[in-house]
Amino acid sequence: MKRDLLIATTNPGKLREYRSLLARVPACLCSLDQLGLSLEVPEDGESYEENATKKALAFASVSGLLTLADDTGLEVDLLGGEPGIRSARYAGPNADDPGRRGYLLEQLRRYPQPWIARFQCVIALVEPGRDPAIARGTCWGEIVPVPRGTSGFGYDPIFQVRGEDRTFAQLSLEQKNRISHRAQAFHALLPALGAFLHGGAGTSA
Q: pTM, whole model, 2 decimals?
């Protein structure tokens, strides 16, 4: 019998990527909408690990389910690693994706290109009464001055992947899920996820 696995995100882009990444995992995937869960978890931690674990713990506690959550950020070298863990709030609390991209580009226009950057993703896997499992993934690239592509979400249209001539938003979901920061973190988490699903001891990845 398959176990339930809650994907604790309200971001439809993230949910779509996780559903694809988890397609072959023997679990019944649940979303917050499916369970009618609405919970505000302040992302006020000092690290991706802290924020991801905080979200996963909160939703695991209210749902009683094995829960996966992540915290993701875009780090730009010339900006000292900003926006980093503040990526979703960098342009203000009410900014949309185009607004965040526009604000970031405005901060970068004073600097010469290339604008080297990396996406960081930390996934936390939590089950009530057990130690969390944590995994990290990093994807290097650079920021481009003009958005390209219509796939993806967030900063994807202005992030060109190292070794590619395309942004994340120009890749298909399958292509992105082979190389992205989230895919790397997910694959690093797989041994721990298997242990959780089959009743073994959870370990940090």
A: 0.93
Calculate the CA 56 to chain-centre distance.
13
Q: What is the pLDDT of residues 44-100, one digit of tens each?
A: 899 999 999 999 999 999 999 999 999 999 999 999 999 999 999 999 988 999 999
Closest among 179, 109, 189, 93 to 144, alpha carbons compared: 109
Give the residue numbers spanning the domain of 136.
3-197
Using the predicted structure, report yes or no on whether residue 119 has a pLDDT greater than 80: yes
Quick one: average pLDDT of 125-141? 95
Using alpha carbons, select from 47, 13, 51, 33 the residue that is nearest to residue 177.
13
Question: Has residue 123 been placed in a domain?
Answer: yes
Which CATH number fits the domain that encloses residue 101? 3.90.950.10
Tell me if 84 is assigned to some domain: yes
Question: CB of 135 within 8 A of CB of 72?
Answer: no
How far is residue 81 from each of residues 38, 87, 115, 116, 162, measured CA to CA in Å?
31, 10, 11, 10, 17
Q: pLDDT, tens digit, for every residue of 26-47?
A: 999 999 999 999 888 988 899 9
Catalytic residue among 71, 77, 97, 165: 71
Active site residue 71: yes
